[in-house]
Design goal:
mainly beta; 191 residues; rod-shaped; 15 strands
Length: 191
């Protein structure tokens, strides 16, 4: 039974009778629902301020939702609650600023009956530090003149979230070669 109506009656020994107004009781056993929208799972960004957005719905209405942000050690670094007040459907974005690190984020959604739904568990990486790169052993010194048909370049890179390394070779007229390596190879021979 999802909805019931009831009225209270009272009668005393003298035969006096009274009753309350009719009330309706709704039994809601359906969990609310939520879908994480943005930032998408496994986002890696240098933008520290993000709007963590979800789409929520419920058959009888959402009471509130809480954004939970957890660092890679399991510490809660942000918990923000937004009161929805009975809306059946809503898209909510809560803006949070984080420092460099790896974070998990999800929403707890509570409907008007107190049913709780945990929406997703997305990961975001905040990385505002530029990669460190330096020429390694065997690379010719700057402005070195050589007479051969090849150049050896070796670089050392320090970067937690390395995407690629791009080598660019210029001569007196401009760019003559550009090579991007997506593996962790740190050298390039040009011939």
């Amino acid at each position: 039974v999802s909805q019931s109506r009831y009225t209270g009656y009272a009668e005393d020994y003298a035969g006096n009778l009274n009753n309350t107004e009719q009330r309706t009781l709704t039994v809601d056993l359906t969990l609310p629902n939520g879908t994480l929208i943005s930032p998408v799972n496994r986002t890696c960004t240098n933008v520290t301020t993000q709007s963590y957005t979800t789409n929520v719905s419920d058959n009888y209405g959402i009471r509130n939702l809480t954004l939970n942000t957890i660092d890679n050690l399991g510490n809660i670094v942000n918990q923000t609650t937004s009161v929805i007040g009975g809306s059946l459907q809503s898209t909510v974005g809560i803006v949070v600023t984080l420092v460099d690190g790896i974070y998990g984020w999800f929403y707890n959604i509570i409907d008007m009956a107190g049913n709780v739904f945990n929406a997703g568990n997305n990961t975001i990486i905040i990385d505002t530090i530029n990669p460190l790169i330096d020429y390694g052993y065997g690379t010719e010194v700057n402005t070195f003149n050589i007479s051969r048909n090849w150049i050896y370049v070796n670089v050392s890179v320090v970067e937690i979230n390395e995407a690629n390394i791009t080598f660019r070779l210029f001569n007196g007229t401009g760019l003559i070669n550009s090579t991007t390596l997506v593996s962790r190879s740190m050298y390039r021979d040009w011939e």
